[in-house]
Amino acid sequence: MFTITVDDKQPIVNMMNRLLTRLDPEGSHQGFVDAMEALAMVKRQPVDVAFLDVDMPGMNGIELAKRIQSIRPLCNIIFITGYQEYMPEAFSLYASGYILKPVTEPAVKEALAHLRYRTPSVSTSRIQVRCFGSFEVFVDGRPVHFGRSKSKELFAYLIDRRGAVCTPEMVIGNLWPDEPFDEAVKGKNRVVTSDMVAAFTALGAESVIVRGVGGVAVDQRRVDCDYFRFLEGDAYAIHAYTGEYMTQYDFAEETRMHLLQKFHRDQSL
What we know:
Layout: E1 2-6, H1 10-23, E2 28-32, H2 35-44, E3 49-53, H3 61-71, E4 76-81, H4 87-92, E5 97-100, H5 105-112, E6 127-130, E7 136-139, E8 142-143, H6 149-160, H7 168-175, H8 183-201, E9 209-211, E10 216-218, E11 223-225, H9 226-231, H10 235-240, H11 253-268
Parallel strand pairs: 1-2, 1-3, 3-4, 4-5, 6-11
Antiparallel strand pairs: 6-7, 7-8, 9-10
Helix pairs in contact: 2-3, 6-8
């Protein structure tokens, strides 16, 4: 997660950076005492969460929030202030949270747990899957290393099928479309399936794969996936979609067309 803190008092900025680093050690956290410097950062790259002091000289936090939202509509705004009277105006901006000073770690943790806009790095699942663009899989924020490229492709196919049980015939027809359905290719499928399971087992995440007599599937409940969230109408996922989906896999062409049609249809409403 990438956060910024903007407060005209340097000790508060330093305290917030230390606190956020404890809560999210894998993230990036920057602080500013100057609102214009913070805006320059927001223009350069997306920010997941902005912690803004409301009562600042020059540009106050309310005005800064409006300008951030005009640049990054899906940036989560959390106001920090010692004055409750600002709360109505703050929440009229669809803020994600409001923290009264003195700031405490439990208050920040609670605010981060209830963000208005879900970000790629703020997830309730250990397993994150990115389908938009090239297909990538992460467990606890780190890339999953599959022993075989076909193992990763198999997992991508299961994600594309959204939890449906995939028979060996279905898998082979999509991963080895030019090969006959014989014992040799069935053996390849068994090896690739075992390797895929082993990759997740090594990370203690093997429950994401459901195996049965009829075939294999992915447990959607254990995955945070931009494709799944897009179909559910999640604002961040819709914003992140640029028309590309699992670009390295031919089997995904049908879904690519479906997503494009849905996106253009929704935009026209």
